[in-house]
Amino acid sequence: MLLSDQMWLWARGFEGGGPHLDLLRRLAHWLMKEPELEEEALRANVRGRKIEIERQSLLAEIPPVKITAPSGQESTVTLAAAEPGLSRASVDASELGLYRLTDGTLSVLANVGPENPREFQEVVSTPERLRPLAEATGGTVRRIASGATGDIALPRLVSMRESPVYGGSDYAAIKRNGASEVKGVGVTPLAIGFLGLIALLASVVSAWLFEGRRGRKDA
């Protein structure tokens, strides 16, 4: 059936038909190297602080899986056969971070805990992180909400030429880099007095005549 051009017979229900849609979909995914349909695959799923390892293979003997913790500590786990062609194992994760698993041929990564744990270590609004960089380049970092009431106090924005400092107690400066310069501005009106009025009336009359002629033709 796979090497013939008679798949359409299944779709037409010939002699009871067949699962042509499932077969063609899986065949297309297999040709596109869909990981779920590969005969050799190593997977790792994280559930809380537990890593579930799954090895799909046609081999008679499944090699052990080496696990490398985020700290670099290594351990080895032996997988047990769960069903034909599928072996599983489960290990407890004592550390948060990215684990690397390999059986010598296939490798997979598993993340335990939040994806960016450092972002949750100090979830506090503070200007101190960027202050050294801003001050080293002549800038300034400040809060626009002050006090317990959270009143907004925006600094004055001023434009400055070359200067070692671009911020003060009550202002924040924007550096003029001279990338552009306006030489002059010219204004030309599109309609001047009566000429504009005549042009407007002419366009209205033309539109009225055109609509009238088209209405008579339709009648």
Automatic annotation (TrEMBL):
<keyword id="KW-0812">Transmembrane</keyword>
<feature type="transmembrane region" description="Helical">
    <location>
        <begin position="190"/>
        <end position="210"/>
    </location>
</feature>
<keyword id="KW-0472">Membrane</keyword>
<protein>
    <submittedName>
        <fullName>Uncharacterized protein</fullName>
    </submittedName>
</protein>
<keyword id="KW-1133">Transmembrane helix</keyword>
